[in-house]
Model the fold of this input.
Amino acid sequence: MSTSINALPYAYIRGKIVPIEQATVSIMTHAFNYGTAVFGGIRGYTAHDKSSVGIFRIDDHIKRLYDACKIMRMPKPLPEKELKNLLIELVKKNKPKTDFYVRTNVYNSSYNVTPNLHNMEFDLSIYIFPLGEYLDISKGLRAGVSSWTRVSDNMIPSRSKASGGYINSSLARQEAELNGFDEAVVLDRDGHVTEGSSENIFLVRDGILITPTLSNDILEGVTRRSIIELAKDLEIPIEVRTVDRSELYVADEAFYSGTGAQVAWISSVDHRTIGDGKIGPITKKLQETFFNVVRGKDSKYSSWLTRV
Ligand code: PMP
Done:
């Protein structure tokens, strides 16, 4: 399954809100040639009573984007508060009727062919598109361990959502689909589980929720953090630790988490059925709780939503 974009009418580029057709860059742009950009992906959800839309954890997403800028020594395009206001303004202007996804890019906009980040110009672009399910969450996903190794933090900083790093994700996803799987599981150089092509991963063994650590070359997922917080509140025991490939095979439950994927359960890994091949109780509970939260049904987590 792939997500084709039919973007909402207004975008932001070069300091202005413009019709999406005008939000283009030249083939000479550094980021187009070398993937020298960092990006963010934020979801917006229609409230359960349709009274508003809620942007999910906008401050956390901005923080991660700006952490990525810091790692790359790219300037912050706008102060945090102004970026937040701009994102809200752009959502309002686009009047989304469905759930949506906001893509922000801070990209090297220089016309320059030296692979370098120093003394370059950067720009901010934003566009929004409707997004339902990025992975089919109604059925169990067939996951396959990738022959591609996850880029490590010292190659392309894992926690940075650097555009060029997504070649690694794309190769893993391409291979997974060619091999008849829905999604990849990508291992690190030592053979430990890191994450999917663009999702974090969780498993359950003997009632304990387990996910790889932040030092396992994973992206610091906002959804991952949310799941950990929900699990703590639901008193589900959790271990954040290194996970072996074969541990996935013997897990009772497994799921991916991410802005696109949300909470997407895994029914098999490398043709080994996970549990009894049905969604497990802990995954189901977390999935239900997550959707109640994002749809604004659970007031305990209302601070995670910015209502527009
Ligand atoms: N890992 C990678 C490589 C990703 O691209 C994503 C999607 N942003 C995730 C994990 C999940 O992160 P989040 O929950 O913040 O979307």
Notes: The CA atoms of residues 210 and 239 lie 5 Å apart. The mean pLDDT is 96. The pocket of 4'-deoxy-4'-aminopyridoxal-5'-phosphate is lined by residues 41, 169, 195, 198-200, 219, 221-224, 257-259 (CB under 6 Å). The chain has two domains: 10-130, 141-294.
